[in-house]
Amino acid sequence: MKHHEISSPSHPAHKLTFEYTEFPFKCDGCKEAGIGSCYKCVTCDYDLHHHCALPSTSFTHPFYTKCSFQFMSRPPGETARFCNACEKDVTGFVYHCKSCGFDLHPCCARLPMVLDDGEVKLYLYRKVSSPCHRCGRKGRSWSYRSTCKKYNLHVACVREMLVETWHELYLGRGKSKKLETRIPSLKSTLQTPRNHKNKGKVKKCCEMAGLAVQFVISAVLGDPTALIAGVIGTLMSK
């Protein structure tokens, strides 16, 4: 459920208005990148992911059935903490399990268990045995894997891709309005075999993997519908 206007304890000076933006923003709650649905104070240029603006006081996650996560506006304690889903540092809003010590970014905590645009389905796993398209390693963080099990992408690797392209994604948003500069692609991360007989299959594989990475990026940014709703088909088709 979306509320057009809300009040947030993190920004008591003004109310926040719901917006849908195709341009990346930095969430002032969890301090991570966002795109799509957000709540914004235009006066103060204050932005929150949908999940950060309307958090649950507590919740349980299918991957941690014995944990009870509590929402906190800042990480507990003085030591550095990291998100158990994406392995990235926690510097703002967080869901924390006191008994287990686990932490989840609000957007990571709400990552859909299934991403589905009608043609491609990606399932979220805590761990997978197959290598990641991005880093080539197994295990590591949470991963999205396709139904056919051929395409696998670590949530941690998506976070790293976002960091690598931060200037284009966030700082460079005023210089260019081309989608390619705002959303990282998988073109430079896939290695193409030299067997020309399989050129057609390889191209199809790259296209499917490209679709997969765009799905996961939009989910990690806080809105899994941001790319599926109209633009995803043009990203990796060339």
Mean pLDDT over all positions: 76
Q: Please give the share of residues in helix.
A: 10-25%
Q: What radius of gyration results from the CA coordinates?
A: 18 Å
The total of helices stands at: 7
Q: Beta-sheet strand percentage?
A: 25-35%
Overall 3D shape = globular
Q: What is the spatial order of strands in the main beta sheet?
A: 1-2-3-4
- Strand tally: 14
Major pleated sheet? 4 strands, antiparallel
Q: Termini, distance in Å? A: 37 Å
Series of H and E elements: EEEEHEEEEEEHEEEEHHHHH
Structural class determined from secondary elements: alpha+beta
Sequence stretches where pLDDT stays below 50 over 5 or more residues: 173-203, 228-238
Provide a descriptive summary of the structure in words.
There is one protein chain. With 238 residues, the chain is α+β, with helices and mostly antiparallel strands. It is built from 7 helices and 14 strands. The chain has a 4-stranded antiparallel β-sheet. The longest helix is centred in the last third of the chain and has 22 residues, at 199-220. The N and C termini lie far apart (37 Å). Residues 173-203 and 228-238 have low confidence and may be disordered.
